[in-house]
Amino acid sequence: MSLLNLQFRAIAARLQVLDNSHPDLAFPKVSNLVQTHLSWELEKAIAKRQDPEDPHTFWDLLKIDAVLCLENQMGEKIRVGVCLVPNEFQAYKTLNKANQAAYFQVRRQLGIQAYWVLCLDPKHFPNQNQWVDFLYREIDLQQKSCRLIFV
Prior knowledge:
The protein is α/β, with parallel strands linked by helices.
């Protein structure tokens, strides 16, 4: 887990929007879905000596660093999978992979309604207040389920 991910998860936890402990996101369900829909990715990960018993291996394969539960201005709770990347090349690469049908299917079965690839410079990491403004502005603008957002 990168410093960028740790910083984001710490802020999301303080804002009480982190949703990774929801029963829909339990390790047995996640691992079963990955084995069913993304078996080739899991095989590649194991070949690279990643631990198939570690939940982080599966979340890495799904390109999800955190799952948030955000409420939009209509009062609807929306579960958002978030992937943080430090540069534009990684952002587009991640978005292309996330748009594949197998990834969409896994996210849908996990109850993740939206997926955001957040591209941001770790040297200019937003503070907590900036994250509040950003997250709720984005959830209210929600246009499609899979997006690249430059922070």
